[in-house]
User: Fold this.
Amino acid sequence: MKVNDTSSSRGGGLGGGQGGPRVQPAAPAAAGGGGEEAEVAGLRGNFFAIEMLADVGRRAGMGERLVRADEAAGKLRAFLHEWTASAARRQRMHREGGAASGSCGGDVESGGGGQAWRGSWKDVVAGTSALQMVRLLDLLHPTHSHVFFSRHFTLGPEHVLKPGWTLGAYVSHVELSQQREQLANKQR
Assistant:
């Protein structure tokens, strides 16, 4: 097993972890050699899905919860499957002329035998965000990583923290406070 320290920032709405090590799988054993199985690769730790990725997590039933990476991936794949089927039905309905012009929120363009649904970014964002989140989850260890889906974090009455650099500062503060408390407890 090879471990590389990767302390790069995580963009795209998935943040957290501890800039921890990335575990790469061991080289596969030679065929017939009876060697050990390769370890599962992936980043380990707790991560936050914010903004659009938090919204799709909420839509998939994982809002405001800490979810194991493999569970999150499974729920998002199921959500993506349902979303794809729904989008295909909506497009078929418009193509066959079964819906009034613009009734699904998208632009309608005249076509040969009916109407072709063009839609807008609002119609596709849930699917593209789900696909992006599934791809990001592929970078995480399936059982030793967890994701918390939230668009905002409540710190107290009337104090809501919106995601961004302030979230990173808050997490660092919490981790530092926990380390100080552990050190104080050891000294007692």
Notes: Helices lie at 51-59, 69-95, 121-137, 165-187. The beta strands are 2-5, 14-16, 21-24, 42-49, 66-68, 108-110, 115-117, 140-149, 153-156, 159-161. DSSP finds four helices and ten strands in the chain.
